[in-house]
Amino acid sequence: MVFSEKKANKVIKDFNLAEQTIKTWRHRGNIPVKYNSGIVKHKIEKPNEIQGAASLKKILADKKLKCTHICALANVKYYMFRDYACQGGPLSREDFISLKKAVNTIRMELKRSLLNLEQYEEPNLKTLTALKELFTRKEVNWLRFFNTDQKLYDKFRSWKNNKRETFPLEVKEELMTCMLVFLAETAVY
Questions:
Q1: What's the whole-number mean pLDDT along residues 106-130?
Q2: Which of 4-8, 107-111, 163-167 is predicted with the least confidence, judged by mean pLDDT?
Q3: Which of 76, 148, 150, 166 lies 20 to 30 Å (CA to CA) from residue 14?
C-alpha cells in the first residue's frame, strides 16, 4: 500500500502501533501489506481499560509466579508481557484473559490440594500424589511460595524429590498457611 499520512494515521490508530512507525513508513514510501485489509485482528486496548489488568501485573511482578512459564502456559509471547509490564506497552484483551486463566489454573490446583489437606488428619495416597504433582509445577516460585523460609522449603523439596519417604506432617499447618497466603495474594480482581 502506497504511503499517505491519512492512511498511516488510521492504521496506527486501528492497530495501536507506535507513533514512530510513521517515520519508518514515510522513509520506505509504503505501508506493509498486512495492514492493507483494514481488518483489525486483535483489538488492542489500553491496559487500564481491561478489568483486572493492574492486579494481574502486580501478581506477576511479585515473583511468586514465574512469568516466563505463566506466559508459556497461557500461550502469550513473553516479550509482549514484559513490554507491557515494564513500559506500559500494548497487550490484547485475549492475552490478558489467557494469562488470567493460567494464573487461575494454578490457583485452582492449589485450592484442591488445600481442601484435601484440611479434610484428612493424615493425608491419603491420592492427596499426597496430587500434592507432589502440584509441587512439580514450574510456574510457581516455590521458595517465594514458602515466604523465603529455607527450612520449610528444603523439607518439601526433599519430600518431592523422594529423598524423604513420608510427608512432613509436622509442618502441615505451616504449609496450609502458605497456601492461604498464596491464594490471597494471587487473586485477580
A1: 81
A2: 163-167
A3: 76
